[in-house]
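Agenda item 2: iron/sulfur cluster complex prediction
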Amino acid sequence: MNMKVEKIQAKTLVRTSNRSPHHIHMNLYQGCYHNCAYCNGTSDNYHMHDDFGVTIKAKINAPELFEEYLVKKGLVPFNRNGTTTLDEFIESKNNSLTKYQTPKFLLSLFGNVCDIYQPAEEELQLTRQLLLIAYDYGIPVRLLTKSDLALRDLDIIKKIHETSFARVAFTVTLMNENDQKNIEPNASSTFSRIQAIKEFRNASIPSGAYITPVIPFIGDTEENLENIFAELHRVNAEFVITGGLTLKPRRNKDVFMQVIHENYPSIFNKMLELYSNNISYGQPDPEIAHNYQLLKPVSEGYHLAKKHRINFFEPRYIPNVKFRKNLETATYLARIGFLMREVFFERISIAHQFRQAAAELECLESDILKMSDSQLQKLPISQAVIPTIREILVEGKSTYLEDKGDFGELLYSK
Ligand code: SF4
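Presented output:
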């Protein structure tokens, strides 16, 4: 079916989360013409319109709303109007240093209910306008897409990276062209996405891949995963992340199963059985996955990334926040918890405590570096985690991560 574009005036745009106060998110579109069979945007929680993959609602006032948000935060467009430095801007426009606030957050344009470079973007250029504003205000950005249209904005992404930080990730799931067209019918080809990673890397812009979802019985073959990792190594991808397929009950699952029924009838019953538990987050039934000897997408991806010498996880960029050490420490703790739980399947209850401690430090309003031992003990953090926090703060390392060979790949030094 042909795409229909409906231009709408959004009332709100920027989304924030108390659990992640140094990120902002937004969806520039509702609906996505890429029309991936597994799209989470079709799940009931997003309350999207029925023809999600055909009618695209474009928030044409998004640039104004974004700029209003930044101005309310006390930010100034110091890269605009020919100024190249903050001092220049302040001298000519404000005459007051007190008016300026440093951006304390990073803009993630990942889109839960849209791809920022889907076909409607070609003409409407909402993503491009947002990036121009991000550049003007010195906002660091992370982008995720399934389209090589991202290369159109290489010029502005490069400028953002030169002045603050930019990273562009591409979702890559299936090397076989038929499978990719069955499952992600209107997205760029896998080859084009991988080539786009190469072009961003050649332009010295951080770029890597999300192999999400690894689709059971289709994308989880050794051939598919080995080929993707080999290609990512070839184009010098900076990082890779892998994750499994979730199918939330009702619409999300129904849409996916319809595509499987039409294109892969021989695996239809197995797939249906795998997701027969109908749990709200959409994970497959672990017992059935075990019976079918399905691989574990995260741990498999971790080991393949090691084999192909690609970072597993995106190194974190920390914006210019007040208590940087809090976020650095939180990043280490989150990584330890993740590795314990998802990769090495060890000490699951302790893993949870590490992740909770990381979440606590993300939001902590005082400087962990200046806290005494007794103050540290009073934080709502498990005692099992405190020695690791001390080790990171005092010795600048984590023995656990060093043992796993992971310590040096967590953060950008930029
Ligand atoms: S590109 Fe993303 S948002 Fe668009 S249909 Fe595919 S999964 Fe959904």
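Discussion summary: Residues 369 and 393 are 7 Å apart (CA to CA).
Owner for follow-up: CH.
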